[in-house]
Design a protein that fits this description.
heterodimer, A: 346 residues, B: 153 residues, mainly beta, Lipocalin, 9 strands
Chain lengths: 346, 153
């Protein structure tokens, strides 16, 4: 009798611990909850996370390929490794052109991961709260980011996205991030260099499992007519300037936003990306956004990307992404036709 | 079983249609728009509009040139005096409609020259079903109109 009781108790205990362990595991896999790791109540897994090893790697020198070129990926003695892309909601806050609190432009100081808050100059007090790019309900729109050279229409749409808290963010629909947002969506990235083929590949765990191919063979971009508005990630050609990889990208479509906050771009966007690896643990990314369709002048944004010693995993954004099913337009009408439900909602 | 499979295929087809339909940002007026203006209860007239946006650094206060065509095709007419007025008041008023005005010289159904004047409001700006409503005037005829954006990257 006693042993039967002990057996039952043990079974219940083991079952209970299993449930608890699964709950903890599930929770650790769950945040942030947006289509691809953004800030809304959206589907998808989110969160690159994992893979410590940055501190140790920071002390290590920058790895190089046998020909002396900077190695932007795993070194031969690495068991695994990836770049843990940060979550940057508002790229304006990471602009080196942003005035710092003490005055003057920031130069290269706008490094390091997360943005989304912080004080900013607000020249139009009537139109903007005192904080630029603040948290929920505090978004100041274009007036809170005077260092971003908006055009009248792009300022108006940015204000609109600020007011509705980016509810039309295409990443919420599991569409791929475009331009610099590829490196600000918090899923890991792996860089594979193939000097013998004169190619560099960037593989993204998030971003709907997309990849980029950078041509390093000196080829020009195809003619504009062949590219105009046709690609999500653009056509990329790269070259080394010393230890800096400079990548020139054109040919974007208009299916993406620059960031979660809703800075628009157009298919006139020309992107110049500069990559450096100052030590093993750090990849520094800087992008110059040259888009006369949306801005009155080019502007820059930049951040560091930390190294993590583990590998990439599988992530399917579309799996159980309910966001589109619940999204309503400005008049309360479902974006996707729900038939009968749609009529009830009106 | 077959019914479930059919439903699944239909769902996939709907998603395949819906997702590209959502994917168009850039200048909110850019692209083609279709709809009608209503002269009276029995006379509705189809409208097709096409707008293009070309930005250029330092070109003008708008930062570029917005052009438009009324009824693109053999009877097309370029828009004149095309003007967009954006909401003022920052984020607080950011969901207010954008005012759009344009004119065009074209021909009516009988082939007679006619001047068109349009004053509209662009709404639902971030959604793929963005639309423009307002007043359409062709010569002495006048009535309300509505056009909805057609999408495709």
């Amino acid at each position: 009798m006693r042993s039967r009781f002990s057996g039952r108790f043990l079974t219940i205990l083991v079952a209970g611990l299993s449930v608890f362990a699964m709950a903890v595991w599930s929770f650790s896999q769950a945040a942030p909850a947006q289509g691809q790791g953004g800030g809304g109540a959206r589907g998808g897994r989110g969160g690159g996370g994992g893979g410590r090893g940055g501190d140790a790697a920071a002390a290590e020198p920058t790895p190089r390929l046998p020909d002396g070129t900077i190695n932007l990926g795993r070194a031969p003695n690495d068991v695994d490794g990836k770049w843990r892309l940060p979550y940057i909601q508002n790229m304006a806050n990471n602009s080196p052109d942003r005035p710092q609190a003490g005055g003057g432009a920031g130069g290269g100081a706008a490094r390091g991961g997360r943005a989304g808050g912080g004080a900013a100059a607000a020249p139009d007090a009537s139109a903007a709260p005192a904080r630029g790019g603040g948290g929920r309900g505090q978004r100041g729109g274009a007036a809170s980011e005077p260092w971003i050279p908006f055009l009248p229409w792009s300022a108006a749409i940015y204000n609109y996205n600020s007011k509705n808290e980016s509810k039309y963010d295409p990443e919420g629909y599991c569409l791929p991030p475009g331009g610099p947002r590829l490196y600000a969506t918090p899923y890991p990235m792996v860089v594979i260099q193939q000097p013998e083929l004169k190619r560099i590949y960037l593989i993204f765990e998030g971003g709907t499992h997309v990849w980029r191919e950078i041509f390093m063979d000196g080829r020009p971009h195809p003619p504009k007519d062949a590219l105009d508005g046709t690609t999500w990630l653009g056509h990329s050609v790269g070259k080394w300037e010393g230890d800096t990889l400079v990548v020139d990208v054109v040919g974007f479509n208009e299916g993406t936003w620059l960031d979660y906050y809703g800075h628009y771009h157009t298919d006139q966007m020309h992107l110049v990306e500069r990559w450096t690896r100052p030590n093993k643990a750090t990849l520094h990314y800087e992008a110059t956004i040259d888009d006369p369709g949306a801005f009155s002048a080019p502007w820059r944004t930049a951040w560091d990307i930390p190294w993590a010693s583990d590998g990439i995993r599988e992530y399917i954004c579309q799996e159980n992404n309910q966001y589109l099913n619940h999204l309503k337009d400005d008049f309360g009408k479902y974006i996707i036709d729900h038939g009968e439900d749609d009529e009830k909602s009106q | 079983m077959q019914g479930r499979r059919l439903r699944f295929v239909c769902l996939l087809a709907c998603l395949a249609i819906a997702i590209p339909a959502l994917a168009q940002f850039g200048h909110p007026l850019k692209g083609s728009w279709s709809g009608e203006w209503r002269e009276n209860r029995t006379n509705e007239h189809r409208i097709l509009l096409e707008f293009k946006w070309e930005g250029k650094y330092g070109s003008n206060p708008e930062g570029g040139t917005l052009t438009g065509t009324l009824n693109p095709g053999p009877n097309s007419a370029p828009m004149k005096n095309l003007k967009v007025v954006y909401p003022t008041g920052g984020v607080a008023n950011a969901d207010a409609p954008w005012q759009v005005h344009f004119e065009a010289d074209t021909k009516d159904e009988s082939g007679a020259a006619i001047h068109v004047t349009v004053d509209g409001f662009l709404e639902n700006i971030g959604a793929y079903r963005r639309f423009m409503t307002g007043t359409w005037q062709e010569g002495t005829r006048k009535g309300p109109f509505k056009v909805t954006a057609n999408y495709g990257l």
